[in-house]
Design a protein that fits this description.
mainly beta, Immunoglobulin-like, Methylamine Dehydrogenase, Chain H, 2 domains, six-stranded mixed beta sheet, 4% helix
Length: 671
């Protein structure tokens, strides 16, 4: 029997590639119709297998199948990984002994848990949340014609959901499908993910079991697949150019010249073509950039700072030549990096540890660490932080504390720099801030929400009043069991597909990640990884006003200047080699209700691309493929046009900006 492959088998859809990373070689077990028992011994690694049993089951190394009483082992350390990891429960049978499995923080070494209750268990690295592994515990008595039949279990608990769900729930199906999107997709000219063609038992809200004879056929019908996807051509580019370049981390590319995945890619916002792509193959003993995740630029924007998320370094390189300038060891799993607008010092979020680290301009060594925990607390795992325009305040999500913290970066004692902490929800993953720095926003990855946090007095909008904090649900009206959606003014159930393009405003946002406020302080765009869509939030109301389509693994968001005035939000996707362009005011009238996706562009190497690497080729089920342009995560357009940074740009970098773009919060200066 072929079961639930949970890691990456890539696909090429026309000129748009979807998928992830290669599978290391090993002898396959189990022909179709058989149930392989795979020992749940996971070696956590830096990719592309991430949770690796060493056994290939239907194209994945991340699925184990076991009987009750089996011990699951998580092994972290060299040579599989240079970083720490933090495997925690994300799905488990309700009431199962030893569940949920939780660590106090990332570790290097070995930890284990014994699974006694049959059903579906899924684990997620809290530091690197798309690292997934699963165990199906099968009751030996559950047989049909001598073959073990997997059962997801009657009720399943899900991280971030406040009550158990029957295994025959819409949300369970969508999370399982997310695993498949990270793992398998058929290489056709349409979106047709591959699922296990195997029977699965699920249970409704009354505990009544249902046998799904073929999970693949069921999911194809349930998710309205296949879905036709047009090739990304010049006709799909935005009609109005952007200003400068769009820089993003294409983290899941596999290259011939380097061992570690990932590059930093520069797209010309005038032509929408990839101008340069650098992987720095000579650094790290030939490994190259190690999973470059997020990046920023020096004030003159000639030096690029890239965090190597599965390493311990922030690397500086020349923007135009790709030459490495220097590296600074900052701590385990550095995730995001920004500069303080006033001093050009780097602030790096040390995702695998417990701090924000300040680095001297030019990546010239650590100057201080700001503790992300209070005395006596555990490991916070801060991920995507954001800084105020004056460079004095930081906000960081604490993935392991379910909260976000505000920091005074001028505090006399950096160990006591936290000024405020607010509850967010399960796995706070990314933050943004208003251009006036009166509010910060944090996304709860597994709780499907955004929380507004006032930085001083009450500033979050709740109806007609201002409050200190506000929870902005991205699943308002969504029924986690039936999938019906009563929002959007229709009152009718909506069967929203994976790209949500025909779901209108009713589609919920599932697994939100980056969230960024426009420099003019009007709208915030939120990228939702599981639902493949974007929420648009009106900053004047702190309410969702529209849901827009995105692509699989929708992830990164940041704003750049639109030529002639206004702004574009650039939105990346982990499992697609395309970036979406959002215009909050396409008509130029100031009506943000017209916000729309106005174009897309590819992120793979073109005929005129300058690069120090070449895409590695693989042989798949349907022929040869590459991962060129895959893994869009952090993104930042250059020139940086956020309030506080844009005013300090050298005059030459301001040349293409309008008066209002040069000083977005001071429109009176432009007459």
């Amino acid at each position: 029997m072929r079961l639930l492959p949970l890691l990456v088998v890539p696909a090429l859809l026309g000129t748009v590639a979807f998928g992830g990373a290669r599978i290391s070689s090993s002898k396959p077990v189990a022909a179709a119709g058989e149930l392989p028992l795979v020992p749940p011994i996971f070696h956590l690694n830096d990719g592309p297998t991430w949770f690796d049993t060493g056994v290939d089951v239907s194209g994945t190394h991340s699925l184990a199948v076991a009987t009750p009483g089996t011990q699951v082992k998580f092994i972290v350390g060299p040579p599989d990984t240079l970083s720490d990891h933090d495997p925690d429960s994300v799905i488990w049978p309700t009431g199962a002994e030893g569940m949920p499995f939780h660590n106090d923080g990332g570790f290097i070494g070995e930890k284990s848990v014994t699974l006694t209750t049959p059903g579906l268990y899924a684990f997620q690295c809290t530091i690197h949340p798309y690292m997934l592994g699963a165990v199906l515990v099968v009751d030996p008595a559950a047989t049909s014609n001598g073959t073990l039949i997997p059962d997801f279990g009657k009720m399943l608990s899900v991280r971030g959901v406040d009550k158990p769900l029957p295994s025959a729930s819409d949300y369970i199906y969508r999370l399982v499908r997310t695993f498949f999107i990270i793992s398998n997709a058929d290489k056709t000219g349409s979106w047709m993910p591959r699922y296990a063609p195997a029977p699965i038992i699920v249970h409704d809200a009354n505990g009544v079991p249902t046998l799904i004879p073929n999970l693949e056929a069921f999911f194809h019908q349930y998710f309205h697949e296949p879905i036709a996807i047009p090739a990304i051509t010049d006709a799909m580019h935005p009609k109005v150019p952007g200003v400068g370049e769009v820089m993003q981390s294409t983290q899941m590319e596999e290259l011939n010249e380097k061992a570690y995945p990932g590059t930093v890619t520069f797209i010309d916002a005038n032509t929408w073509q990839v101008a340069r792509k650098f992987g720095l193959p000579t650094i790290n003993n030939g490994g190259g950039l190690d999973n470059p995740h997020n990046q920023w630029a020096s004030r003159d924007e000639n030096t690029i700072y890239s965090d190597e998320w599965f390493s311990n370094k922030t690397t500086a390189f020349d923007r135009y030549s790709g030459q490495m300038l220097r590296q600074t060891v900052v701590g385990l799993s550095p995730a995001h990096v920004m500069t303080r607008s006033g001093t050009d010092e780097l602030i790096v979020g040390i995702n695998g540890e417990n701090k924000l680290t300040e680095v001297a301009p030019g990546d010239n060594g650590v100057t201080k660490d700001f503790s992300a925990n209070l005395p006596g607390e555990g490991i916070a795992h801060p991920h995507a932080h954001w800084l105020s325009g004056d460079g004095n305040t930081a906000v960081a999500p604490n993935a392991n504390f379910d909260s976000a913290s505000l920091f005074n970066l001028n505090a006399p004692d950096p160990d006591l720099s936290i000024t405020k902490r607010a509850f967010v929800g399960s796995i706070p993953i990314a933050t943004g801030m208003s251009s006036t720095a009166d509010r910060a926003y944090s996304a709860g990855l597994m709780s499907n929400n955004i929380v507004c946090i006032s930085t001083a007095g009450p500033a979050c909008h709740d109806g007609g009043r201002l409050v200190d904090t506000k929870n902005i649900s991205l699943t308002k009206g969504y029924d986690y069991v039936t999938g019906s959606q009563g929002g959007g003014g229709t009152g009718l159930p909506v069967a929203f597909p994976p790209f949500s393009s025909d779901a209108g405003p009713a589609a919920p946002g599932l697994l939100p990640i980056q969230n960024a406020v426009s420099p003019d302080n009007k709208v915030m765009v939120v990228a939702n990884a599981a639902s493949g869509n974007m929420d648009v939030i009106d900053i004047a109301k702190d309410e969702v006003i529209k849901v827009l389509p995105c692509d699989p693994g929708c992830h990164g968001v940041n704003w750049g200047a639109k030529k002639g005035g206004g702004y574009y939000a650039y939105v990346t996707s982990k499992f697609a080699n395309v970036t979406s362009v959002v215009d909050p005011d396409p008509s130029g009238t100031g009506d943000i209700s017209q916000v729309a996706v106005v174009g897309k562009f590819l992120t793979d190497i073109g005929p005129s691309t300058k690069s120090d690497v070449t895409p590695k080729k693989f042989n798949g089920v349907h022929g040869e493929y590459t991962l060129d342009g895959m893994g869009g995560q952090g993104v930042i357009p250059l020139p940086i046009v956020y309030n506080g940074w844009v005013q300090k740009l050298p005059d030459g970098l301001k040349a293409e900006l309008t008066c209002r773009q040069r000083d977005p919060m001071n429109p009176r200066a432009c007459g």
